[in-house]
């Protein structure tokens, strides 16, 4: 891949060249330009895959350069670099069709992360293009073709193995006889019973690939999967680059756990083979098959089991552990997330609880304790919250089944919202703060806030800053960061979902804004908080 960095400051370019590990990313050709004119000259001389350009440059600026690139070189991916962590710049990058957006000075690891995403995108685009060129057979779907190709890698005939390697290379897979790969064999009991299918072959392939991505087993690790004559799924994992990253046992275990969550009613087993060269795949595959059939015993082979009849998560512990998290979500106004967590808890009970009645009762008690404490702290009379349409007794008896409990939760959340409306803020500043918190998932503007309190934007901005010390735009960002910190501390929601919950569609932008306030990325903040919590004495 050929990369071009454009910045009028030579010191910035020198810093990038010295700190970014291009060799580990597999990028061999990196070029630098100190202006738009030089960048266009380089683009005319040789094909460039991606351009990362500063915005503020003398002469033709970066936005104009990106427009020209889009017109003259539409296949070139562009990334906007700017020193302004401003939503308007993010919007402009989207309008221009930029691949991503980075705030300067971007740390080396952030640049490497974006380049890794570019490599993944280019790899997939190249593979799609090569698939099209192979012929009409490909148009019916890559998975069907790869199924047979992957199975031939385990053939006893050398010509079949060689043909599969050649076809995989044509399809864009960087394979060779010496490249290392790992074989996993998975068995699904219901899939082997043709009369009792929980999921089709195609659906299971799709679920496996989705779980790999969710477990962060992604580029440069590439997957191939097929089904053998025993109706066992064979999953092959290998690297697209020469320097293969370590594939830890924890990640493979996480992948298996996610897969079991997708198919909670099936008996699933996973046998993990050793990492071997492609030329030795058949021997490793046969070894795993012999272990599965009982012909061979090898304690070194990792075997993972999931049995829905025997493996039952501790639902009571799950419910108990949710208490503090839920109270925090309720207090901070993250009501939609709280409802999602409640639904997850009900799913745990319905799918895994050995004693559903007791589990529902425990959940009802946790709910009641949370809500009644909340209303008490906010000086609300609990009995006045109930009416003829939904009585106090109906709420207290709602533990009998999941639907009744969900109705009770929905009703209490409605009462929380009504309580918030009845306690209307007294001043315009307090009204604005409440409006910002209630609309925290949206891209709120200064005008939106000013319109809400029925004042001019110019006048209200001055009043707001005089009382709070922050202008409205700064306060909106600060509020989002504080809400993010609360979710990172008290929930297990993925960082990407936290960004979306707060209205950030560009994860890089969210990460950079968060780091500006906290001096660490969201992931680092969560890890640090978890570490501090673990260090506290019991």
Summary, kept brief:
This protein has helices spanning about 10-20, 20-25, 35-45, 60-70, 85-95, 110-135, 135-140, 140-150, 160-170, 190, 200-215, 250-260, 280-295, 315-330, 335-350, 355-375, 390-395, 400-420, 430-440, 445-450, 455-470, 470-490, 495-500, 505-520, 520-535, and strands at about 1-5, 30-35, 50-55, 75-80, 100-105, 180-190, 220-225, 235-240, 270-275, 300-305. With about 550 residues, the protein is α/β, with parallel strands linked by helices.
What does this structure look like?
With 538 residues, this protein is α/β, with parallel strands linked by helices. The chain folds into four domains: 2-128, Response regulator (Rossmann fold), CATH 3.40.50.2300; 141-306, Alpha-Beta Plaits (2-Layer Sandwich); 315-422, no CATH class; 428-535, Homeodomain-like (Arc Repressor Mutant, subunit A). 57% of the residues lie in helices and 12% in strands. The chain contains 25 helices and ten strands. The chain has helices at 10-19, 22-25, 36-45, 62-72, 87-95, 108-134, 136-139, 142-152, 158-170, 189-192, 201-214, 249-262, 281-293, 315-331, 335-352, 356-377, 392-396, 402-422, 428-438, 446-452, 457-468, 472-490, 495-501, 507-518, 522-535; strands at 2-6, 29-33, 50-54, 77-82, 100-103, 180-188, 221-227, 233-239, 268-277, 302-306. The strands form two sheets. The chain has a five-stranded parallel beta sheet with strand order 2-1-3-4-5, with helices on both faces. It has a five-stranded antiparallel beta sheet with strand order 7-8-6-9-10, sandwiched between helices. Strand 4 (77-82), helix 5 (87-95) and strand 5 form a beta-alpha-beta unit. The two termini are 52 Å apart. The model is unreliable at 135-140 (pLDDT under 50).
